[in-house]
Amino acid sequence: MTGLTHSLQPSPRRLRRLLRPRPTRPSEGGPLRRLVRDRAAFCGGVLLAVLVSLALAGALGRDWRALDLSALREPPSARHWFGTTGTGRDMFALSLRGMRRSLAVGLSAGLLATAIAALVGAFAGLVGGPADRLLMGTADLLLVLPGVLLVAVLAPEGASWGTVVLLLAAFLWPLTARTVRAQTRALAEREFVLAAFYTGASRRRVVLRHLLPNLAGLLSADAAVNVGVAIMGESGLAFLGFGVRPPDVSLGILIADGTSAATVYPWLFLPPAVLLTLIVLAVNLLGDGLHRAMDADR
């Protein structure tokens, strides 16, 4: 019996292996580590960084307003990588200029809409009562209105891109606000929120220090969705002749100009259309990854 008991005891080497600290799994790391290890999110972040860098760097010294009268509607070549327009403008330079404007409008409108939704939804869910009904009633009204059409109607003639940003953000926040309100009402019953109130914390402090950080995953994913919707909305407005006006360009303007000749001169349509698709894809991949990374511990 003693020999059997001795044989069941682990050897010193096995005992040291059992007691050795196990390496932390990737899923147990912080949000940034989980985000980097998320292949889809990492690819989306890299793609978005490349696109933003190209938009900020410009067309490698090429002037998007310059005319080359010796190359009218020339197909892609070593001289003009994306070809030229009917007036001799370089499509590579035009596409990067249009991407810069579309990114500026989309990022600004999407992030502004998410910030408004976070504050309104958290305040409505925490306070309740008449303020809650008023804010959510306003959100419901904006949800049933055709946002893009109203932005087109309300945008004054020759409106700046900043005005377009404000109008787009005004119609993008309601749906996110309702989601934030529902999550806030659930979090308001948690112990850490009640403890904050018992210690004398103000509602503003509870919202900013306790509620919004716990909604970071939801807000990051929603911000990505709003940015994508804002970029598509701006492109749609530009396609219809609203928003950014010539001589400036955006991806929507370039797509509108190239649509009629897409089958004959595809280089007038494909570059801005592909860039728009890549931007929306990158933003959505990054947003989904942020949601997964920040909600893994919740």
Sum this structure up briefly.
This protein has 298 residues and is an all-alpha fold. The chain has helices at residues 2-8, 12-19, 31-37, 39-57, 91-127, 129-144, 147-154, 161-187, 191-198, 203-214, 216-240, 251-259, 270-295.
Structure description:
The protein has 298 residues and is an all-alpha fold. The chain has one domain (31-57, 83-295): MetI-like fold (Orthogonal Bundle). The chain is built from 13 helices and no strands. Residues 1-10 and 18-27 have low confidence and may be disordered.
What keyword list fits this structure?
298 residues; mainly alpha; MetI-like fold; 13 helices; elongated; disordered N terminus
CATH class category: Mainly Alpha
- Return Rg in Å: 26 Å
CATH T-level topology: MetI-like fold
Classify the secondary structure makeup into a structural class: mainly alpha
Helices and strands, in order, run as: HHHHHHHHHHHHH
Strand proportion, as a percent range, falls in: under 5%
Largest sheet: none
Unreliable spans are 1-10, 18-27
> Which geometry do the CA atoms define?
elongated
Q: Helix share of residues?
A: over 70%
CATH 2nd-level architecture:
Orthogonal Bundle
Give the CA-CA distance, first to last residue. Answer: 50 Å
Can you tell me the CATH superfamily? MetI-like
Total count of strands = 0
Number of domains: 1
Mean pLDDT: 79
